[in-house]
Write the structure tokens for this entry.
Amino acid sequence: MSSTHDHVANDEPSLEVAPRREVSPPVQFVTPEGEVTALGEQHGIDLDLARQLYRHMSLARRLDQEALALQRQGELGLWLQCWGQEAAQVGSILALRESDYVFPSYREHAAALVRGISPTELLSQWRGATHAGWDPTSRNLHFYSLVLGTQTLHATGYAMGAVLDGGEHVVAAYFGDGAASQGDVSEAFNWAAARDLPVLFICQNNQWAISTPTSLQYRTPVHERAAGFGLRSFHVDGNDALAVHAVTAQAADIVRRGQGPALVEAVTFRMAGHSTSDDPTKYRTAEEFAAWEARDPLTRLRTLLEHRDTEPSWFSALSAEADELGVEVRRACRAIEAPKLDDLFDHAYAHPHSLVDVERLTHREFVDSLEVAG
Amino acid sequence: MTSLDATPTAGATPPGTKTTTMTLGKALNAGLRRAMQDDDHVVLLGEDVGALGGVFRITEGLQDEFGAQRVVDAPLAESAIVGAAIGLALRGYRPVCEIQFDGFIYPAFDQIVSQLAKMRARSGGRVTLPVVIRVPVGGGIGAVEHHSESNEAYFAHTAGLRVVSCADPGDSYRLIRAAIASDDPVIFYEPKRRYWDKGPVDLDAAPASLDRARVLREGRDVTLVAHGPTVKTALAAAEAATEDGFSVGVVDLRTISPLDMDTLMRCAETTGRMVVVHEASTFLGIGAEIAAAITEACFHVLEAPVLRVGSYNLPYPPAKVEDDFLPDVDRVLDAVDRALKF
């Protein structure tokens, strides 16, 4: 936009639509040092909520570390760490009602734990035992989507159905800064806005899409883009759990009241590589990592709680709970069994399909022939 | 000769049943209306399906009757149409999408192939996605580029989808209702150059089965296998062959996934010669699959290789050339001759 202006001669009036110049800083309630901001004081700090957030975030980080270790031991085929994004996930999902249907992407382990997904359910996909670890209707949490952004359209359609059913609804979809480049995400923004659908889009901007930084991904930030599509738009410090919670609650309230879709962009950082197959030292600096480590979402919340008289015994009890979770994660992972190929023939179609029937029989006969041959 | 079709729902209209004559397009319209009357969870989505009734008018009048919440004019975004249909199905609805033309389905390819087709299997059978994607298909109407494609092989190759191809008004009415009633996702092909063909429709007929071919004409010498727009071509070729003294049968596949191999095998055993006719290019097409499957299943009864008649392995040509590009009666008869002389 500015380059176009540069080419306009001084005496010639610009005919271009006025570019939007306001850059709204992300909402922050608690600084990385654990100090409450003026906006945070104005909103009020709920220490019970802060402890609830901190507990879920601590447990999620512990699960994440255990899963990484299990992958390194060969127990998991792959793991995608949520390290660094705990506040963005826990803060947002705790601001929703349990009846709100949520479509995650594939790194929302912290959000999944909050919704009661068990370690077995969470790890089975990454152990290669299933493509979807849990029954989505039981916790109103859809299973992971690995093709980026596709779930934003599923959320849009789900919201259409919710409107047909009547009543007040929020349908949430998580995605990331990389996925925001997918056409599906723009199509979802557009259709949800055109029909005032009750969709809450939650973008965790973790700065990196594998090795591609946001500077190469887009020029206009996701929250500005969403506003352009006609969504109500929010921009929050994604490492500040209390701010994420408050912003998501406000956005969800707008959506629930039928005032159309909204987007929350939570600015955070993917502390680990994209996956356990990635090597982030090949594309980003130690300085960048250190700068974000200083903004760690757990540290700042712990500092706040310690300053506001949370007893050391509360933290040690939580530490013991995390240890128990670690034991359970290791036990659950090793207990996950591979499915039988024979069973998979039952799941591709709802109604009998003659080719599947023939191939199931062929497979059984082949297996039986091997057993007879001994 | 007795009918080779064992399915009780696939036969001709029983004597005495009152039928109406209508075009294939109107029969589909009637089938959609009936499905929407029977189940208020049936929702239509597509470009221009509302006030206009779709560019081929297949949904004409339905928005007036069922409202804009159930007949939804979508933005011009095919991936969004299919993606939203998946979400609607997850919420308990039975969405029927219209893709305006065959060549416009590709922006939705991921949502169809990676999402719609696989979600049930991924979920271990816990998730059911009763989504129908209606696609006006094929050439022969003098259309511009991307409006005459035959892309059924892409979707038939994808586990988790059913692929249906309708050929005449009466059967289209029964097949569209069966597709909507199916708990599996269905790619439903409508032969656009046959939309205006008239035929008898029994509005009280039960929905068709989605796994049975129809034997439309019995033969002793050669079996022609066709689907969608080429069924009429095959019937004309079979009729012409009688003038040369040959008895040529015609099978309308109706369903491409699954293929009704039982019916195809019985026909192969009867005639020993089979020619598959479709508009799509023959390379890696449905005809190739049928030829391979029939050869594997009943090699010993074949008098000749299973032959294929389709279009050439070229991008669909400009309209002025399409009559030479598409399989016609002469090319089918040529293949019949080759099968007989083998």
